[in-house]
Design goal:
Layout: H1 3-15, H2 25-32, H3 36-42, H4 46-63, H5 71-84, H6 86-93, H7 98-124, H8 130-153, H9 160-171, H10 174-187
Length: about 200
């Protein structure tokens, strides 16, 4: 076993029991039998090791999904990981490292959403402005991270299959429809609420 792998395995093991706030470096070293210098030879902090573990366990599976049709598979991989690492994730989420954990999850979710948008735009032959692309990314990431946060706040009791299947059903073709609507807004042909015509949005 490599030293990096041992660091990650020991950290995951300890986070099954300890909150991130109750696991200072000194305790990690005494419990794992690893020295502070050994850790710093490979990582700049414990959270860096957590992210490396997260990335190596399923990051490649998610990033490798490069089209919209694999959105569900990628989302399932993320939710499955969170469920498998339930105690670790809860001990990070309900600690001062919450934002670190959410930022880490967001990085992979954002890559997944970006690929979905680009794939759909390519399939439809739609050219979208950078401003609209970023707006779509922000919108879908708000939904994505909202589901993740609700999952944590509910202490992760919901069935992962239920969450993913319902999210998929509600989002089916949604990105493609959004692209059509944004194109209509750009062309000045989009009909707004109550039949009111919306003017073309200036860029």
């Amino acid at each position: 076993m490599t030293t990096k792998k041992k660091i990650k395995e020991e950290l995951m093991r300890l986070l099954e029991t300890y909150s991130a706030d109750d696991l200072p470096l000194k305790l990690f070293c005494s419990e794992s039998g690893l020295s502070k210098q050994t850790l710093y030879n490979h990582y700049y902090c414990l959270m860096d090791a957590v992210e490396d573990s997260y990335r190596s366990e399923f990051g490649e599976r998610v990033i490798g999904k490069d089209d919209y049709h694999n959105w569900v598979g990628g989302f399932l991989a993320i939710m499955g990981f969170l469920s498998e690492r339930r105690n670790v994730c809860l001990h990070l989420y309900f600690s001062s490292r919450r934002e670190d954990l959410l930022l880490m999850i967001s990085r992979y979710g954002e890559e997944l959403v970006k690929r979905g948008i680009e794939e759909c735009a390519g399939d439809k032959g739609v050219v979208i402005s950078e401003k609209d692309r970023q707006f779509m990314l922000n919108f879908y990431m708000y939904v994505f991270m909202g589901i993740i946060k609700d999952y944590f706040e509910g202490r992760m009791k919901e069935d992962v299959g239920y969450i993913v299947s319902r999210s998929s059903a509600m989002m089916h073709h949604h990105i493609r429809t959004s692209l059509d609507n944004l194109k209509a807004v750009e062309e000045g042909t989009f009909e707004g609420l109550s039949g009111l015509r919306l003017d073309k949005t200036p860029i």
